[in-house]
Amino acid sequence: MINSKPIAIVDSGLGGLPYLRWLQSHAPDEDLVYLADNGHFPYGERTTAELNGVLTEITEQLIQEIDPKLMVIACNTASVTSLSVLRERFPIPFVGVVPAVKPAAANSNRRRIGVLATNRTITDEYLENLIQDFASDCEVFRYGSPDIVDFVENRLINSTPAERTEAVQNAMNFFLDLNIDSLVIGCTHFIHLEKEIASALGEGVDIIDSREGVGRQVLRILDSFELHSLKREGKRGRQSTGRFFLSSPPKDEQNYRDFAEAFKLSYNGVLPSFSRQPVGEPG
Ligand code: DGL
User: Fold this and answer.
1) Residue 246: strand pairing partners
2) pLDDT band at residue 240, thresholds of 50, 70 and 90?
3) Hey, which bits of 24-149 come out as E strands?
4) Pocket probe mutation, ligand 1, options 43, 123, 247, max atoms within 8 Å of Cβ
5) 153 CA distance to ligand 1 centroid (A)?
6) What's the whole-model pTM score?
7) Pairwise pLDDT comparison (192 vs 233), residue with the higher score
8) Among the four residues 75, 79, 130, 224, which has the most C-beta atoms within 10 Å?
9) Which stretches of 79-181 are assigned E, i.e. beta strand?
10) From ligand 1's centre to the CA of 186, what distance in Å?
11) Which pLDDT does position 234 carry in this prediction?
12) Quick one: 105 and 244 in the same domain?
């Protein structure tokens, strides 16, 4: 069966784009819709109760407006706090992005792992449980950085190499002293700075994120529920494009236009249902 409804990919801002890129190249026939929930950015400084409200609202709007067949919550913070709430409430499949603690533990020879994420994620019980389940024999060092989130969202596009190096420096100084051999990028925004992170930590530290695992999980769901938009045979090498939306009018629209263009997306401004009903504070 063919299902040509879109796949929705959601983050608080620009962090989910590297996950969208994986889908563009591995599922080129899919119609991809990206929503940057800039109206509630940054997620990492919100409570779980707030995020449950925010993610429920976003999902309702997306279902009403674009009727996705599947949603990717391309945000570690939103996934650790709210994925179970969304799955219970809405009838479509959800794929979440959670810190790649399991692959990092499998990769670590020294049994010393770093997790770089938002403040919400590093203190969340979900991360604690992941560590207990998959890395209980490792020392796991956590660092929360709202500053890097803010840099990526608001300053990355016009930044110099020196500014990018500087943006990750405090976090890297923390990990450099700890003799880790694997670093989990547990916030999707930080993937935009993976080169800077890797070069600050040097060759002895592997940088690990969830892109491959999440992308494969999307493909498995499309397979098992027969949700593919077209038969994939003979379509190799094509790169899908998609549409980019915001949840609120941005201060710096050019920033979002530039990112949309860099990821081969058409820039569509605020999702129409949000223009009719502006985003409010949750609760
Ligand atoms: N990109 C998000 C994550 O993966 C959160 C960034 C934010 O604080 O809004 O956790």
Assistant:
1) 36, 270
2) low
3) 32-36, 70-73, 94-96, 112-117, 139-144
4) 43
5) 10
6) 0.94
7) 192
8) 75
9) 94-96, 112-117, 139-144
10) 9
11) 44
12) no
Considering only CA atoms, which of 196, 174, 197, 173 is closest in space to residue 184?
A: 197
Structure-block tokens of residue 217: 């999980």
**What type of residue is 63?**
I
- Look up the domain containing 248 and give its range: 7-97+212-276
Residue pair 184/99 in contact by the 8 Å Cβ criterion: yes
Q: Is 112 exposed, middle or buried (0-12, 13-18, 19+ CB in 10 A)?
A: middle
Q: Given a cut of 50, is residue 233 above it in pLDDT?
A: no
pLDDT tens string 242-251:
999 999 999 9
Could you tell me the CATH number of the domain that includes residue 122?
A: 3.40.50.1860
Atom nearest to 117 CA in ligand 1: 10
Dump pLDDT digits (tens) for 35-71. Answer: 999 999 999 999 999 999 999 999 999 999 999 999 9
> Is the residue at 282 inside a domain?
no
Longest CA span, the chain: 54
Q: Backbone dihedral region of 269: left (phi > 0), alpha (psi from -120 to 50 degrees) or beta? A: left
196 closest CA partner among 176, 169, 156: 169
| Amino acid letter for position 161 | P
Q: Which entry of 58, 66, 75, 105 is annotated as an active-site residue?
A: 75
Looking at the structure, tell me whether residues 177 and 272 fall in a common domain.
no
Q: Is 266 helix (H, G, I), strand (E, B) or coil?
A: strand
Interval 86-104: pLDDT, tens: 999 999 999 999 999 999 9
Q: Is 75 annotated as catalytic?
A: yes
